[in-house]
Amino acid sequence: MSSRTKSSKLVLIGFAAISAFVFVQIGGPHSVSPAAPAPAAAPAPAAGVPAPQQYPIMEAVATKLIQKYQGSTCEQLWQEKAEARNKPKPPAVQRAVEALHNDPQMRVAFINRVAAPIANKMFECGMIP
Questions:
Q1: In a domain, 99, yes or no
Q2: What is the CA 75 to chain-centroid distance, rounded?
Q3: Spatial separation of the C-alpha atoms in residues 51 and 66, rounded to whole Å
Q4: HEC string of the chain?
Q5: Measuring CA to CA, which residue among 56, 80, 70, 50 is closest to residue 120?
Q6: Does residue 78 sit within a domain?
Q7: Structural domain for 125, as ranges
Q8: Rounded to whole angstroms, how far apart are CA atoms 107 and 113?
Q9: Dist. CA 126–CA 122, nearest whole Å
Q10: Which tens digits make up the pLDDT trace of 54-94?
């Protein structure tokens, strides 16, 4: 696989993670209730990567997002993806993306937390090769 193809897929996964982050923050039709059980503990962050405790709100959103993906069927995810096409991003989405652009450490912590569970679900659903 060429490095261009790999980087394109990584960009797609990153965009999916950020989109999902924003979707959870503004709420969605399948959002998880706050009373839902917490997922298994996240792996310890690598050296130089901020711990989730530094960003408790981001951690809560990431946990909710992971639960949403793990609790959704492939059909639900495909439907949400189709509905999101060609729609302008709401202001809350734009603010969330801006926050991740402005705080690289928070972005690293967020992507490290959500990338594997989301990518695995997307792979299971045939959304990524």
A1: yes
A2: 18
A3: 17
A4: CCHHHHHHHHHHHHHHHHHHHHHHHHCCCCCCCCCCCCCCCCCCCCCCCCCHHHCHHHHHHHHHHHHHHHHCCHHHHHHHHHHHCCCCCCHHHHHHHHHHHHCHHHHHHHHHHHHHHHHHHHHHCCCCC
A5: 70
A6: yes
A7: 55-129
A8: 10
A9: 6
A10: 888 888 888 988 999 999 999 999 999 898 888 888 897 78
What mean pLDDT do residues 49-53 have?
57
How big is the chain by its Cα radius of gyration, in Å? Answer: 14
Give a yes or no: residue 12 inside a domain. Answer: no
Give the pLDDT band of residue 31 (cuts 50, 70, 90). Answer: very low
Q: Which amino acid would we find at residue 5? A: T
Please tell me the distance from the alpha carbon of residue 84 to that of residue 117, in angstroms, as a whole number: 21
- 54, 56, 57, 60: CA torsion to nearest 10: 130
Q: Considering the entire predicted model, what is its pTM? A: 0.59
Distance between alpha carbon 127 and the CA centroid of its chain, in Å? 14
The verdict on residue 106 lying in a domain is yes
Number of independent structural domains in the chain: 1
